[in-house]
Design brief:
Layout: E1 13-14, E2 23-24, E3 35-37, E4 43-45, E5 80-82, E6 90-92, H1 93-103, H2 117-125
Antiparallel strand pairs: 1-2, 3-4, 5-6
């Protein structure tokens, strides 16, 4: 199968949506804005069918990522996320992924409100890998 991101053959990951026939390589997933869920049921989604954050949270002008302190987009997207519990903590996908890898499942929580359960569930659904350590 050809990868819909890079166009090369050998794509082995297929979108979980049954009506979708897009396939991609795991390394191409980030570039193609695909989401891979590292839950008990390993699933992957193309950019069109990936899970989105619920709600209409919008960031104020000049809102920064709590981890890298760089500005974020004014709304949620593939690369910009918000804490589902407090709706005030904004961060980049790459920044929160780094935080998750560092903290592990026992210490990973919202950098602002410290919510753990709701935050971890939402991040796992959105494709953030949280290692068990």
């Amino acid at each position: 199968q050809d990868c819909f991101v890079c166009g090369h053959s050998g794509a082995t990951i297929t979108c979980w949506e049954s009506s979708c026939n897009r396939s991609f390589h795991l390394p191409c997933a980030v570039e193609g804005e695909c989401v891979t869920q590292f839950l008990p049921h390993y699933r992957s989604f193309c950019w069109e069918h990936r899970p989105q954050q619920a709600g209409e949270a919008t960031a104020d002008e000049g809102t920064t990522c709590l981890i890298c302190m760089e500005t974020v987009q004014h709304k949620t997207s593939y690369s910009t996320m918000v804490c589902p519990a407090c709706q005030h903590a904004w961060f980049h996908r790459t920044c929160i992924q780094g935080q998750a890898l560092y903290a592990g499942i026992f210490n990973f929580c919202c950098p602002l409100c410290r919510n753990k359960n709701m935050f971890q569930i939402e991040m796992e659904i959105l494709g953030i890998q949280i290692p068990i350590r």
